[in-house]
Design goal:
The strands form two sheets. Strands 1-2 form a two-stranded antiparallel sheet. It contains seven helices and four strands. The C terminus is likely disordered. Helix 6 packs across helix 7. It starts with a helix and ends with a strand. A hairpin with a 2-residue loop joins strand 1 and strand 2. By secondary structure, the protein is mainly alpha-helical.
Length: 204
């Protein structure tokens, strides 16, 4: 995860895990026992993940292109106009990265009714999990990949949506700040998304 952040920021990490998810889907498509519904659900999850990566990449590119005005910039997405904070909120729920790392599939209560891109992704994942159509090892692999994508989105919301929009992190320091934040999360004992303990709290 850290290597992907260092190379291509949060969008790079998201795209890394999406490529792995797409590889899982391709493998399942080659198996005659895989149902059409299962494949379709996984492809929908991947498509929604690419929505998250697209927003992340847009924000990262604009930060690089317009560092002096980035925090006050407005963005167009799917026919709507967003401030920087609102745009980043589409891919993260506004919890701390540590909280999301512990329980990536439980969004904060205050965004439960919002139709953000990350919430759509979480709901698609839960639909797959609740269907019980995947073999346990495949389900675990998909869960790990989805959890990492959700964490990556939260990293964007934390660094860009919260700190950069308030002038606390300069636009040209976003990648370094993301890498530092991941290091902090790892230092808290959360070395794998969804596994580990923090303050006595067990991960799901």
């Amino acid at each position: 995860f850290s290597a992907a952040i260092e190379t291509a920021a949060a969008s790079g990490a998201t795209n890394l895990y999406l490529a792995q998810l797409d590889a899982v889907i391709k493998t399942l498509e080659a198996q005659p026992t895989a149902s059409t519904e299962t494949i379709a659900n996984l492809k929908a999850l991947s498509t929604q993940g690419h929505q998250i990566a697209g927003i992340q990449k847009l924000l990262e590119e604009q930060a690089k292109a317009n560092p002096d005005t980035f925090k006050d910039q407005q963005f167009e997405w799917n026919g709507k106009t967003y401030t920087l904070g609102q745009m980043a909120r589409l891919v993260g729920g506004g919890a701390s990265p540590e909280e999301v790392a512990l329980q990536p599939f439980n969004p904060p209560q205050h965004i439960a009714m919002e139709r953000t891109e990350v919430l759509k992704f979480i709901n698609l994942y839960k639909q797959i999990e609740n269907s019980n159509q995947l073999q346990p090892e495949v389900q675990q692999a998909v869960k790990k990949l989805a959890g990492n994508i959700i964490f990556s989105g939260e990293l964007t919301e934390d660094i860009i949506g919260y700190h950069t929009s308030r002038g606390r992190i300069e636009a040209d320091k976003i990648r370094e700040a993301m890498l530092s934040r991941v290091t902090e999360v790892n230092a808290n004992g959360i070395c794998t998304i969804g596994q580990g303990k923090r303050n006595g709290q067990s991960c799901q």
